[in-house]
Design goal:
The complex is a heterodimer of chains A (444) and B (544). By secondary structure, chain A is α+β, with helices and mostly antiparallel strands. In chain B, helix 2 packs parallel to helix 3 and helix 4 runs parallel beside helix 5. Classes of the chains: A alpha+beta (444), B alpha+beta (544).
Chain lengths: 444, 544
């Protein structure tokens, strides 16, 4: 039941809209089949498969809006969902910022589905976990990790004739390897749309190697250092910053993209010349659905071009207020890189710090996007082009805006699945000067 | 506290169509409930099917989770949604291993199938098991019930009345200096029926409420903006919490803010927040250095949560969260030594799931264990952890602490944090008296940004309101303040704690843990507390 075809969901959407007596009706049908296996202490702790399918009905009488969701699809249940949404719409106060349902759209499909990934079974999941556990047992290490795969579909429709249907697949693997005495810890993260691009052995070996190398970390004084950040280490920092690209917040003076005098910073050069960031639903490595949550079509949007703020994200309401064109919000984030490996960035570094992962990142000051957080599971001192020794973890207080101004060298982008950032990402490793570490952590 | 879920809500960044809790239902359907006898009959179907299939133990949770949330921005209501999620979760032990299955098909066949599926999963897991599950004994309690002692059921309060209250709060904030206001009302009712092969049939009706807001002031001339969030607590109470009563208001030290105990005046707090947000635009930037910190319970709850609550979770200590939420510095050897100094001798922290009005308060946990209170830190020494039935034997306990919780009928129960609170000081001391003894300090009210390492050593916290303390007097408002410390050093620097007259609780609706992640709810109580010589940094930065 969880993955419905276009014909099946079209029938459901048509039925729902025919039942509605409201001025307009918006329907969203979505389903997923999510498999997972979790392990810790070199043993499986949980494993499962969750199927879920639901339909959301949103109706409006004038500017009064109501929403209902249900996970049953017989005619009686669909009618119940419509009536519930209409009941809530009648109870809700008018929203002066209400925007009518969008007009009919032509969505250009993106390549989000790979059958091989949809075919992942419990044996594959168990094997993905087993290699890390077995290898760790042999080496006197302790593995903990999580593998999850997802097949899903989404259908959107409204009473103005909008209709879109698409299927998607993805997988994520994370693994933490610790030495039995707790003196070393390594980590790896891999994300993919196509399971053929995921190698659990390669991934586990990275975590194992980092764990072994990280034993007996030395303390380095906090301060400003040249850092080589692996892609996973910067993904959440960039995610926090990109949340500030909302045009309304910038225009209202509540974002780092607000300017003195009540204007926004569109067109301003805020970053190093090398920085180019865009979103593109049809990207071959990180494709996403060609519509956003409000059913607006996504486009390729260049957010940062040669270091300049090139575009802001307009909601339909704010676009209307400002005479701008609303485009579907970004579902992915792609940052331009080079062909250089992380190893090459290290080789070009006289003195610096290699960061595997950042952790518990929180906003300290939205005015400057000052973020705090820590390094974790593999922090190393680099000297004369080589990793010299592991170092204790640091707390940092740094703004990604400053960070992207201090870029010395950029590496090859890799796919990073969303963690705290709600985007599929393709991000390079980066060498950054003067990164601000403010204190030491004893955590391993 | 984790992670994405909390961020979504705490930042008040809800989209107008986001429904976080389940399927939406109309208001008039909320008050209907399933008869207990019917739930008991369904539970017996699961218990019988599981034991017949070979389970040596089975518990079944029949849940109906009702929620309503209202989202407002300035003088507009952005969304109103009622949600419901109902179904059955069955957990079994077979061949020494756990199995779990859940279904939304609440029929005899649906439940029996889920029970048999759970047994099949347990049998498969048994092949990978290194040692059998050992459950601490629980004596069956027969047919019992427990309900949050509410005076006013949020389900019976008209939506318009609630929306009007939020809009009035937003208006109060905007009339007093805020350029923008966002407010929300989260209302939760969990109808939970638990049954087990131990002979328990436990029916519980749990209510919770939270009314967060954020006031933002903007100075267009300078391009500066500052925010102040509400000072309410999320509570395990009914809607009566929002019927503000004068006897439930107290003044912060020096009268710098009004604080709330048993009920909350959201309009008064929003009015103050508008003024505070505007004042923050011109507040003095802190000079970094060592300060004696005086932390209000509205702030300290989060510090307790992060550097006492989480490190003393036994599953973290053992390594089950190593890949996600992290491990803990409070390792078993430290506990076994019986002399690990977690803090100063005046520091006493206890766990409980019984304090009336707290988020963690229930009659029984999700393993059917009667809830209780126990010590975690006694006279500054680490004396215990938080454990479930399958962990009790690891720390030599004969019974569980009652720390099992699942955030839905469809998710498996596991070890979650109870309320963890700092006991009030034994000597008579008020916040105003505390100020008099401080030469160079900062008084912090309300919680702000928070970050801590994966073993809970190094942390950094911000806040909502910061006031300079100079030579025993509260002075001007400060900004750009955050403090950094090591957990053990911080609690060892605890100098004094106000007495029970000042004790009250803060808490969280969205404490995350586990993979796939689940959220939990928890309260933390304290009185205003002083910590000496803590490192304060200045967080002001210039960009572009």
């Amino acid at each position: 039941m969880s993955i419905l075809t276009q014909e099946q969901t079209k029938r459901i959407c048509d039925k729902v809209m025919s039942l509605s007596k409201a001025d307009e009706c918006i329907v969203n049908v979505e389903g997923s089949r999510i498999g997972n296996i979790r392990f810790a202490r070199n043993a499986v702790s949980t494993a499962g498969l969750a199927d879920d399918t639901r339909i959301q009905v949103q109706v409006a009488f004038g500017k009064k809006q109501g929403t209902a969701t249900i996970n049953e699809f017989d005619d009686k249940s669909l009618e119940r969902a419509v009536r519930r949404a209409e009941d809530l719409a009648r109870l809700a106060p008018e929203n002066p910022e209400f925007m009518p349902a969008i007009a009919k759209q032509a969505y250009k499909s993106s390549e989000t589905f790979v059958q091989r990934t949809a075919d992942i079974d419990p044996e594959y999941r168990a094997q993905a976990a087993a290699y890390a556990m077995e290898a760790c047992r042999k080496k006197g290490l302790v593995a903990a990790g999580f593998f999850t795969d997802r097949s899903s579909f989404e259908t959107v429709a409204n009473s103005n004739g909008v209709f879109g249907h698409q299927i998607a697949t993805s997988l994520d693997f994370t693994c933490t390897v610790r030495t039995e005495d707790g003196r070393g810890s390594g980590w790896v993260k891999r994300s993919a749309r196509d399971v053929a691009k995921f190698d659990p052995r390669e991934a586990a070996d990275v975590a194992i190697e980092k764990a072994l190398r990280s034993v007996d970390a030395k303390a380095l004084e906090p301060g400003r250092y040249t850092v080589i950040m692996e892609p996973a280490a910067t993904s959440d920092l960039l995610g926090f910053m990109l949340n500030g690209f909302d045009a309304r917040r910038a225009d209202e003076g509540r974002s780092f993209l607000s300017k003195q005098g009540g204007k926004n910073r569109l067109g301003d050069k805020l970053f190093d010349q090398q920085v180019n960031i865009w979103s593109d639903p049809w990207d071959k490595d990180v494709p996403v659905l060609p519509w956003d949550n409000s059913m607006l079509p996504r486009e390729r949007v260049h957010l940062v071009k040669d270091g300049r703020i090139n575009a802001l994200d307009y909601s339909q309401y704010w676009a209307k207020q400002k005479g701008a064109r609303a485009v579907g919000s970004a579902g992915n984030v792609i940052m331009a890189g080079t062909d250089k490996t992380t190893a090459e960035l290290i080789a070009n570094t006289k003195k610096g710090v290699l960061v595997t992962r950042t952790w518990y990142i929180r906003m300290v000051d939205p005015q400057s996007v000052l973020l705090t957080g820590l390094t974790r599971d593999g922090t190393f001192y680099v000297e004369n082009g080589k990793i010299k020794h592991p170092i204790k973890n640091f707390r940092f207080n740094e703004s990604p805006v400053t960070m992207l101004n201090n870029i010395e060298e950029i590496g090859k982008p890799v796919v990073i699945g969303g963690d705290e950032a709600n985007y599929a990402m393709l991000i390079p490793s980066m060498k950054i000067r003067d990164f601000n570490f403010t204190s030491l952590s004893d955590a391993v | 506290m984790e992670r994405r879920t909390f961020l979504n809500f705490s930042s008040l960044a809800l989209g107008s169509t986001l429904i976080p809790f389940g399927r939406a239902i109309a208001a008039e359907e909320l008050l209907t409930t399933m008869p207990v006898a019917a739930k008991k009959a369904l539970a017996d179907v699961a218990l019988n099917a599981a034991t017949k299939a070979g389970a040596s133990y089975c518990d079944v949770r029949i849940g109906r989770y009702l929620n309503q949330f209202i989202v407002t921005r300035d003088l507009n209501v952005e969304n109103v949604a009622n949600t419901e999620s109902a179904g059955v979760g069955v957990r079994v032990i077979c061949d020494g291993a756990y199995g779990f299955a859940a279904t939304s098909d609440v029929s005899n066949d649906g439940i029996a199938n889920a029970a048999r599926q759970a047994v099949a999963i347990a049998k498969a897991n048994a092949k990978l098991q290194s040692e059998p599950v050992r459950l601490a004994p629980v004596k069956g309690v027969g047919d019992v019930s427990w309900a949050t002692p509410i005076k006013k059921d949020w389900r019976a309060v008209p939506i318009k009345e609630k929306a009007d209250l939020l809009i009035a709060a937003n208006k109060a904030g905007m009339d007093n200096g805020a350029n923008f206001m966002q407010s929300m009302l989260f209302q939760v009712n969990q109808q939970k029926f638990f049954a087990s092969t131990d002979g328990s049939y436990i029916d519980q009706d749990v209510h919770r409420l939270w009314a967060p807001f954020q006031a933002t002031a903007v100075d267009k001339a300078t391009g500066k903006f500052r925010s102040r969030s509400g000072l309410s607590s999320p509570v395990g109470k009914g809607y009566e919490y929002l019927d503000a009563r004068p006897e439930h208001k107290i003044k912060a030290a020096g009268g710098v803010a009004t604080l709330y105990t048993e009920s909350y005046d959201i309009i008064e707090d929003a009015r103050a927040a508008g003024r505070d947000a505007k004042r923050k635009l011109t507040a003095k930037s802190v000079v970094p250095g060592k300060y004696d910190l005086m932390l209000s319970p509205e702030h300290l709850w989060l510090t307790i949560h992060e550097n006492v609550g989480h490190p003393t979770e036994l599953d973290r200590v053992l390594g089950y969260e190593a890949n996600y939420a992290g491990t803990s510095f409070a390792t078993l050897d430290k506990w076994e030594s019986k002399k690990f100094k977690y803090g100063a001798p005046i520091v006493n922290l206890y766990a409980d799931k019984v304090t009336p009005g707290s988020l963690g308060a229930v009659g029984y946990d999700d393993e059917g264990v009667k809830t209780k209170k126990w010590d975690i830190i006694k006279d500054g020494i680490l004396v215990n952890y938080q454990a479930t039935r399958d962990q009790a034997h690891i720390i030599g306990e004969k019974e569980s602490h009652g720390c099992s919780y699942a955030d839905s009928w469809s998710t498996v129960q596991f070890q979650r944090m109870p309320n963890v609170s700092l006991a009030a000081g034994k000597a008579k001391l008020t916040p105003d008296e505390m100020v008099k003894g401080i030469k160079k300090g900062i008084y912090i009210v309300g919680d702000g940004s928070f970050s801590i390492d994966q073993q809970r050593y190094n942390f950094q916290f911000g806040g909502q309101l910061f006031y300079e303390i100079k030579d025993g007097k509260i002075g001007q408002m400060l900004e750009d303040v955050a403090y950094q410390a090591n957990t053990q050093e911080f609690w060892s620097a605890c100098h004094s704690i106000c007495d029970e007259r000042d004790w009250r609780m803060g808490g969280s609706f969205f404490d995350g843990k586990g993979q796939p992640p689940q959220i939990s709810i928890v309260s933390h109580g304290s009185s205003t507390t002083r910590f000496n010589g803590i490192n304060v940094i200045n967080t002001a930065r210039k960009i572009g």
